[in-house]
Amino acid sequence: xxxxxxxxxxxxxxxxxxxxxxxxxxxxxxxxxxxxxxxxxxxxxxxxxxxxxxxxxxxxxxxxxxxxxxxxxxxxxxxxxxxxxxxxxxxxxxxxxxxxxxxxxxxxxxxxxxxxxxxxxxxxxxxxxxxxxxxxxxxxxxxxxxxxxxxxxxxxxxxxxxxxxxxx
Length: 168
Ligand code: FES
Ligand code: FES
Hints:
Structural class: alpha+beta
Bound molecules: FE2/S2 (inorganic) cluster
Order of helices and strands: EEHEEEHHHHH
Number of strands: 5
Shape: globular
Low-confidence stretches: 163-168
Mean pLDDT: 94
Distance between the termini: 38 Å
Number of helices: 6
């Protein structure tokens, strides 16, 4: 199988690789770059566990080939905040018990970050609508909604997101 050379800026760092044209972006992130915070829950574009930002917009990374990210910017859960410097959404999920096993959480946070970038003060209905493409199979959605509301309140009060997506 022939390969293609790609250069992708991932979490602010330029990464180069030679990949098969059929490799999905999620497998590139997990298997080539060892950024395993982006999860694969279904591989059929339903669960949202694989959500990352591509050029500042939330996308399901199992729906794209890695070669489609060539020359573009990807932000993953590893790049949105850090231990000791959590993104307000990460703090929100912590404070409101918005996770149990945590499998869905990276995707929930990346989708929520896109929501808060475009709508800093969403209603409960708008949060639920924005997260329709993200499945949670163990916590339930009430605390997840509260986590997003917590983050929106914190950001309105001046907490800064670390996401580059918030800059565009
Ligand atoms: S793994 Fe991509 S949507 Fe489920
Ligand atoms: S916290 Fe377990 S799937 Fe959502």
